[in-house]
Amino acid sequence: MVNNLKKLLVLAFAAASFQQAYAQHDSPPPGKQAKPAVEDEESVSTILTINDKEGLFNSTASFSFDVKNTYSTGQEGTVSYQLTDEKGVQVKTLSKPVKIGANGHERYDFEIPSLKTGFYKLNMMINVSDYDDTTRRAFGIRADQIQSAYKKPADFDSFWKTAKAELATVKPQFKVTEVPEQNTDNRRVFLIEMKSLDNLTIRGWMTLPKTSNKNKKFSVLLGLPGYQVVLKPIVGKDDDLAIITLNTRGQGNSRDVIHTERDAFISYNIEDKNKYVMRGVIMDCVRAVDFIYSRPELRHDQILATGGSMGGYLAIALAGLDKRVTICSAQNPILSDVHNLVGAVEWPMNDIKKYVLSKPGVTFDQVVNNMEYYDTKNFATTITCPTLLGLGLLDPYVPPANGYAVYNSLNTDKHVMVYKDLAHEVSQKYKDYEGSWMRDTFGLF
What we know:
Elements: H1 6-13, E1 44-50, E2 56-57, E3 61-69, E4 75-85, E5 90-100, E6 105-112, E7 118-128, E8 131-141, H2 156-168, E9 175-178, E10 187-195, E11 201-209, E12 218-223, E13 241-247, H3 277-294, E14 298-308, H4 310-321, E15 327-331, H5 349-357, H6 364-371, H7 376-380, E16 387-392, H8 400-407, E17 414-419, H9 428-442
Parallel strand pairs: 2-8, 12-13, 12-14, 14-15, 15-16, 16-17
Antiparallel strand pairs: 1-3, 3-6, 4-5, 4-7, 7-8, 9-10, 10-11, 11-13
Helix pairs in contact: 1-9, 3-4
């Protein structure tokens, strides 16, 4: 039976700092009032439906636009759409005059044939007598064929082999301290500390079920942090699962050496691939697996690495570099197909550009080339464990084509869950599926 823990998984780990819902409706321009559909109040309301459950088509895209008018007078004007690629280049537009009778309802159906492979942004606009609005959606064409044009660096594997070798020279000095005041009726809470790359101390939390069986070994959920998210102890009802939440360097209770401003963290030392902050962050995750292997009460053959946003990125990077991870779950992983983020997203590219301008002699092209060593899609190529990926088609930080460039780079048992109406987030269905999948894989019944 999957219990309360699965309801906590993504809530705890996918709540990254940039996980705001993408606004799906623009405010009306001055002089127009977009009246909400309140009972007994006259209004116009609309629903834009992409006619596929996941918003994915083979060639011809189709969608419908429903307009309901509860005014006692008719509405006249236009319904139109604008279709662009993910970087905003216009692909097609269409506008048609409409008349919606008093207390009337109209449905408008559209098809767009012969579209090229990729993802598209759809802006559906209505402009009638008493109402203006724009609704945004997205859809994909032959998503399973999307591949990045940018190849993994030839020395990618040796680069990370060197990083792991450097980590191995650092004595971990694991320290576990119980925090009794945070214990619950069924779980004990521990502060965990360890030395990682560059001899930095990193910290996190471990919660263990209370048991009288001194030989009991627990399966492990390793939760990795979103961007500048403070992870705290997670306690669930499970009596068979250890939960570890890791605050990598510069995050949460591991900020004593690296303590940048929030926006500056993603760019910290980015001009040097050997000193970039994410090199240490990823090695912190490897060190966390070292910690798991050091503990006799933890099962070393049952480790789920999971996270959302930066945490999703770290889950994929860790699974790609460390074969000790048993299964991997990543929601909306950032830094996916980095070259193709340029011109497609504001974050993190604008912050990186701002950083480059402050560094004489450093060029943006140099930095983006360095980022190939940190690209999610390149870590994905080396994953061998089963992997679950969650994507929102309206994600402003992980465009769906970038997410699919990662998914299509996986050469292992894999599954993707796509949410056509969500942004940098996943739904409760993902959380339920992840919990059930973990328990089934680990034989926790």
